[in-house]
Design brief:
The complex is a heterodimer of chains A (128) and B (108). Chain A is mainly β. Chain A has no helices and 11 strands. Helix content of chain A is 0%, strand content 57%. In chain A, the strands form 2 sheets. In chain A, strands 2, 4, 5, 6, 9, 10 and 11 form a 7-stranded mixed sheet that branches. In chain B, the strands form 2 sheets. In chain B, strands 1, 3, 4, 7, 8 and 9 form a 6-stranded mixed sheet that branches. A 3-stranded antiparallel sheet of chain B has the order 2-6-5, with no helix packed on it. Classes of the chains: A mainly beta (128), B mainly beta (108). Chains A and B meet through strand 5, strand 9 and strand 10 of A and strand 3, strand 7 and strand 8 of B.
Chain lengths: 128, 108
Amino acid sequence: EVQLVESGGGLVKPGGSLRLSCAASGSTFRNAWMSWVRQAPGKGLEWVGRIKSTDEGGTTDYAAPVKGRFTISRDDSKNTHYLQMNSLETEDTAVYYCTTLAVLYFDGLPNSFCFDYWGQGALVTVSS
Amino acid sequence: SYVLTQPPSVSVAPGKTARITCGGNNIGDKSVHWYQQKPGQAPALVVFDDSDRPSGIPERFSGSNSGNTATLTISRVEAGDEADYYCQVWDSSSDHVVFGGGTKLTVL
């Protein structure tokens, strides 16, 4: 069983920065792809970005609304990954969920991804 | 970009069968995943790869996918199944994840 615990949420002014952390336990973190999903108040789920496992290069990818402003990184020695959020906008107000990303392979290549474990969420409020 | 369309709401009586659809262009060619989110909780995966269930998910939850529509079917609906349900795919052309807008299941 995997447990994910987010921390670092809070209130920040527009244009400010915030870093969320996600501590994982119960799995081989180094081999895990990790991701962030957010949910604005009263709205649906929105994918934010992902980071591949270190063994597969640790590369990142981001959704268009956050690309260039948000950065995902990982520290396998601490079983933790991070979401650095810069130039925050009021539209970034949301609960941010840390997730593990299950990779489904077909013929040895990634064919799809799903979010199999979720943290409890961290609320980020961007307001003046 | 790829778009997934879900009905905003579905209502069903206890003990009956609920069907929640997820529409997308040739979605039958993709692998579809479904999540359940109860009020105040994080989402939870209930069906992955069109029709597989994670351990611990009741057999009452099943999925299918063909053509332009994927469907989550919940048999013998219980009051505890009342929640928001989201479908999700990976869009290979953009290498991005896409969620549907969500469906609120109400148990009458």
